[in-house]
Amino acid sequence: MTPPQASPSYRATDRTVPTRARERASHDRELVHAILDETSVCHLGFLRDGAPVVLPTLYGRVGDTLYVHGSTGSRPLRTAGRAGQTGPGLAVCLTVTHVDGLVLARSAFHHSINYRSVVVHGTARPVTDPEEQRAALDALVDHVLPGRSSDSRPANARELAATAVLRLDLDEVSAKVRTGPPADDPQDGALPYWTGVVPLVRGYGAPVPADDLDPSVPLPSYLSAL
């Protein structure tokens, strides 16, 4: 039997439709995945003792699932673990943002940035299956640098016992993108101020070997390709 094909778009909800600049929002699955796959750091927001907390952390994507990891002693992991045993899990909001350019207008009011962002709302649950945990950790490593998980020692039993992984399914998710030039008011067109976009470009430097690296170990192809 052929499995059902995923919809080309995520469902729109009250939490994933912005109140401002709705024309910049998208629920397109391919766009969401492309934005998520271009970086490896997210910001994870949740409530702790009734107060909001936002933590920067690494993540990895496998299909329509995001994984974040941390020490078994970290607050969000402990909270999710307790909630997962007695309730629906830990309610979170996860965000990813790329800044692509500084948008300089003639008026201070219309200064902006060109950006691509994703916001995910959902419930994070602890991963308890050992095979899924290993696959999630491989995905986290490869999300930072594709090919690295197979070119390093996998976590041993002690390290796995000290590591917790949260699973967040991509269900309530949207992208938002701003591109293009400044949007000055027509009456400001003659003002003598430079206006335009300053692009921001991400790049990689040359790999720097560790001091104790055996000189006979070659630079991996996935690094030289950068």
TrEMBL record:
It comes from the Bacteria. Residues 1-25 are annotated as: Disordered. This is Pyridoxamine 5'-phosphate oxidase family protein.
